[in-house]
Amino acid sequence: MTPQIARALGSPSVAELVAQQAVANPGGIAVSAGHEVLSYAELDRRANRLANYLCSVGVGRDTAVGLYLERSPAMVVAALAILKAGGAYIPLDPSQPIARLTFMLQDSEARVVVSTTALAERLPVGPWQVVAVDRDAEKIAAQSDGQPAVTVKPEDLAYIIYTSGSTGQPKGVELVHSGLSNLVAWHLRAFQVTSTDRASALASLGFDASVWELWPYLASGASVHIPEERVRSDAKALRDWMMSQGLTVSFAATAMAESLMQLEWPKTTALRFLLTGADTLKKYPSSSLPFVLVNNYGPTEGTVVSTSGVVAADSSTNQAPSIGRPIDGVEIYILDDHKQPVAEGASGELYIGGAGLARGYRNRPDLTAERFIQNPFNAERNARLYRTGDLARRLPDGQIAFLGRVDEQVKIRGYRVEPSEIATVLGQHSAVRTSVVIAREDARAEKELVAYLVLAPGATLNAGELRDHLRKRLPDYMVPGEFVSIESVPVTANGKLDRGALPSSSGNRHSEAYVGPRTAVEEELVKILAPLLKLERVGVNDNFFLLGGHSLLGTQLIARISETFGVDLTLLKLFDHPTVAEMSVEIEDLILAQVEGSESKLAGEHHRSVV
Q1: Which residues are CB-neighbours of 79 under 8 A, at least 6 positions away?
Q2: What whole-number percentage of the chain has pLDDT above 70?
C-alpha cells in the first residue's frame, strides 16, 4: 500500500501503530538505554496512564505541550503520551538556555509542561501547568492503562519544532499527523524495517531528526537504543556502541557520518543502513564498508525528510553526492525567480509540495503566507508549496544536486542558523553598536561562526563577556567561536554586506599572556586539550570555548577526563569553569571527594566488623 492510498483510507496515527505493536509483540524490546529497558507492553501502559492524566488536566487535540526531559526511555513515554492525548509535543532541549526555552513555551501558548521536579525548577513560573513524572508518579499510576478516548485527525498537530529566526527570536514550525504518517510509511517501505531491526536515537531533542529516529521504528515493532551522552560525539566510541548493540539502522548527522565512514568496520557488522543528512555531504563511502550510506535532505517544514538517495561507493566524480529523489508523497519543484520550472541542469530555488508540509509557523501568519504559497502546478484547492531558500538543480538521472542558499542562513553542526538572529542578540549588549555574523571554516575544517563587531564609543572587546551574554540567550551552536572588532561594517555599492572586505580572523584565541601548566592535573589537561582543539599549545588561563570548543567537543573532553582522572565532570560544570585552571580545581575536588568517600566507607566497614 502506497502512502497516498494509506492516507486516502485514513491510515492509523503513530500512537495507534505503537498500540498495535503492544498487542502483537508485548514482550518485544521497544526502548533501551543502558540497563533500562521497556517492552512494548510496558511502553504502551505507561504512555496510556500518562496520557489519561494529561487529558484530566486539559490536554486534547492540538494542545501544545512542552516536553522537557533528558534523552531517556521516560522521554519516549512522555512523547507518546502527549500524542495519545491528542496534544502536540514541543521538544525542549535541557541544554538550551532557559530564556530561549521560556520564549518557546510562551510563544507556543503551551498549557502543560511534562518534566521532572529538578528540571522544572529551572523554569520560571508561567501560565503552563507542570506535570512532573517523578513528583506526580502516584497520580499518574492511578490512571487507567487503557487507550484514551481521543481520535486525532490527519490535519491535527503532532509536534512543534523551533528553529532559528531572522527576527532575533526562534520560530515554531507546526507539523501535522498526516506528514508524520507519510514519513513513517515511506521509511518502512524504503528501508524494509521489521520488528527484528534495532535502531539508534542519537539526535538532540530539539533536532527534528529525533522525530525520525523514534516513530518509524516504534510503529513497526523494532527496538530503539539510546546511548550515553559521551558516546554521541566520539566516532570510535559510537561505532563500538553501535556494534555492541547490534544496530541494523542508524542515523548520524553529516559530520559524524563522514567520521564513521573513515573507520574500519568488521564485515560481520549488523548495520544495514547508515542514514545521514542535516548538512552538505562531501565524501563518498568506500566499497569496503559493510553498510549502505543514504543521504537525506529536508527542512523542518517538510517533516524531516523530503528527498533521499543511496550514495554510490568509491565514486570517481569530483562533485558532492546528490540529495537523491523525492520520497513517497512529496513533490519537488526547482523554479526560477518567476516561479517557473527551470530546464534540466539549470540552477533554481527548491520548492516542496505534497504530503509532508507543515501547517505553518506558530502565531506567524505573515511568515507562513510568505514561505507557504499556493501550488500553481496542482489543481487541488488547498495545494501548497514551501519555499525552502535552497538552490538546487536536477541531474540527468532525476536526482537533485544541492547548491547552497539564496540567503545568509547557514548550517552549524546540522542546525539551521540565521546569523541575523545572533546579531540581534549581540546588539542587546551595551558594548556593541552593530555587528555581522558569518560562517567560516575553522582549523578542523568545520564551519564556525565569526562575529564582527562595531563597538560602542569607549567600549572594549571582551570576548568572554560577549560569549556569556549570548550563552544565556542562544543555544551553544549559535555562539560564535571568535569575536573580531572592526571600525565599520563594509558594504558594496548596493548597500549589501561586503564579505570580501571583512578582515581575516586572527586565529589567535589564547589569553594575552601564556601561562604553562603548574600542577600534574593541569599538565594532563593541556595534553588532552591541545590535540582535541588542533592547537600547538594551551595555557592554563585559556578558555575552552574561546579556543573553539563547543558542547560536542565538550562531551569528548569530559570522556577523556573520565578516562584520565577517573572522575565525571559534567557539561554544566565545564560551561561554568571553562579555563584549564578552573577545570583543574573542579577535577581535584572530585578526586578528593572520591578519596574521602572511600575512606569513610572503609571506616564504616571497620566499625561494623569491630562491633
Answers
A1: 67, 89, 214
A2: 94
Say if residue 335 is in the same domain as residue 453: no
Domain that holds residue 81: 3-391
Sign of the Cα torsion 159, 164, 167, 170 reads: positive
Distance CA 51, CA 65 (A): 12
Q: What is the pLDDT of residue 298?
A: 96
Spatial CB neighbours of 596, under 8 Å, sequence gap ≥ 6: none
- The label of the residue with cell 546511548 reads 227
In degrees rounded to 5, what are phi and psi of residue 378?
A: -130, 125
Dihedral of alpha carbons 443, 449, 451, 452, sign: positive
Domain end point (choices 474, 501, 528): 501
Type and span of the H or E element at 373 = strand 372-374
Q: Please give the model's pTM, rounded to 2 decimal places.
A: 0.83
* pLDDT at 55 > cutoff 80: yes
- For the cut 70, the answer to whether the pLDDT of residue 599 exceeds it is no
Q: Which three cell numbers stand for residue 98?
A: 532557559
Total number of domains in the chain: 3
CB neighbours of residue 586 within 10 Å: 18
* Averaged pLDDT, 170-196: 97
pLDDT band at 1 (very low <50, low <70, confident <90, very high): very low
Q: What DSSP designation does 569 have?
A: -
Whole-angstrom distance, CA of residue 252 vs CA of residue 232? 9
Query: In residues, how long is the chain?
Result: 611
235 and 370 both lie in a single domain: yes
Quick one: how far is CA 519 from the chain centroid?
A: 38
* pLDDT tens per residue, range 452-497: 999 999 998 888 889 889 988 998 889 898 898 998 888 877 777 8
320 and 358, same structural domain? yes
Average pLDDT over residues 542-569: 84
| Integer Rg of the chain from CA | 25
Q: Is residue 470 located within the same domain as residue 527?
A: no
